[in-house]
Amino acid sequence: MIRNPIPWPDGARCAVAFTLDMDADSILHLAHHTSADTRVVALSMLRYGPEIAIPRIVETYRRFGMRQTFFLPAWCMERYPAAVETVLEGGHEVGHHGYLHEHPNELSRDEEHAWLVRSTEVIEKMTGARPRGYRAPSYRFSRHTLDLLLEEGFDYDASLMGDDIPYLLEGDKGTVVELPAHYGLDDWPHFMASRDFGYMMSIKSPAYAMEVYRAEFDAMWEHGGMWIGVWHPFLSGRLARWAAIEGLIRYMHDKGGVWFAPLEEISAHVRKMIDEGEWRPRIDRLPYYDGPIPELGEAEPELSKV
Ligand SMILES: [Zn+2]
């Protein structure tokens, strides 16, 4: 089913990473800059992430002996230093997730570069190390992002959705390892319900989301893929949901043959397999397009409005 499966360490059947994007209230300020301060309930819902969920999540990882990846917008790190401390005390990786969750594909190349550098400086100052990995806020990877990641020395990206296993993104200045996920592994479609964001998913039992995640995992396990959960502490860290997620982690452990790892370790493994000639990756050349395709002309025709 997978044409070029990668050998995982110690003969594991698949790789698993639970990545948590601690967006906190950055997304509310971005969506409603002039009124975010008046939306107190939304603020409380989002602050639940750093204040309540992060300690709970890190404690679960400690019990299971797992080291994982947290993507932290730098503004959130400055705002919630105790949550950063908790993540670091747990020995986890901190990845780059923008400064204020700004959308790179709505910025000029220079603006995107400036936010990228500013956030890297905060991460370096607060963790003692430059981030090795990047996830574009809201999956808004731009036509310039790869180039900028290469300029700034990143090893991997975890924003795209183009495969079941790692692959390489190639630009003029080199390659980064792409560690893809997809919406089926995200928690917004299951759990997000907030009028402030115009996003009202119907409330269902957490067991339903676990069924979806478990089906994805079982397929990855069967065929040698990679399972990366793209989750948010304020959503997945809620009590009933996190209790169900603990059950999912236990299920994975009990099944066996699973390599739990932070993304930086998966990326390093990918490079090692390539360097040792053990595996040949698929390569995507970016950007896919330099501009709008010419066939439709310059105006936005009706047929493009899907
Ligand atoms: Zn995010």
Distance between the termini: 31 Å
SS class: alpha/beta
Count of individual beta strands? 12
Low-confidence stretches: none
The tally of helices reads 11
User: Overall pLDDT, averaged?
Assistant: 96
Topology order in helix (H) and strand (E) letters: EHHEHHEHEHEEEHEEHEHHEHE
Radius of gyration: 19 Å
**Which molecules other than protein and nucleic acid are bound?**
zinc ion
Portion of residues in beta strands equals 15-25%
How can the largest sheet be summarized? 5 strands, parallel
Question: Level of helix content?
Answer: 40-55%
Large-scale geometry: globular
Looking at this protein, list some descriptive labels:
alpha/beta, 5-stranded mixed beta sheet
